[in-house]
Amino acid sequence: MAFEFTNSKGVKYYLHFKDVNLKGGRIQRIYFFARDVRDGSLDEVPEKFKVIETERTGMPILKKK
C-alpha cells in the first residue's frame, strides 16, 4: 500500500519515486507526490526524509531531516 498524506485541505496524496538519467549519465532518484497511485509508489517515507506541507499550495513535499 502506498504511503498516503492528507493535507490541510483534505486532499490525499501518495508518495512515489522515479530514477532519472542526468546529462552526465548519472542516475538520480527523485521523490514526488501524486493524487493517484502509480507505478513506483512507496510504502513509507525514506529514512532521512520527513513530509511537510507547503503553506501556499498545500502540496506535500519531502524535506531532509
Notes on the structure:
- This protein starts with a strand and ends with a strand.
- The mean pLDDT is about 95.
- The protein has one domain (about 5-65).
- With about 60 residues, the chain is mostly beta strands.
- The protein is built from no helices and 5 strands.
- Helices cover about 0% and strands about 50% of the residues.
- The strands form 2 sheets. A 3-stranded antiparallel beta sheet has the order 1-2-3, with no helix packed on it.
Keyword list:
65 residues; mainly beta; 3-stranded antiparallel sheet
Secondary structure elements and pairings:
Elements: E1 4-6, E2 12-21, E3 27-34, E4 49-53, E5 60-64
Which structural class do the helices and strands define? mainly beta
Rg over CA atoms: 13 Å
Biggest sheet character = 3 strands, antiparallel
Number of helices: 0
Give the helix level as a range of percent: under 10%
Question: What is the element string, with H for helices and E for strands?
Answer: EEEEE
The tally of strands reads: 5
N/C terminus separation = 24 Å
Strand percentage:
over 45%
Mean pLDDT: 95
Q: Which word captures the global form?
A: globular
**Number of separate structural domains:** 1
- Runs in which pLDDT lies below 50 for 5 or more consecutive residues are none
Read across the widest sheet, the strand sequence of neighbours is 1-2-3
Oligomer class: single chain
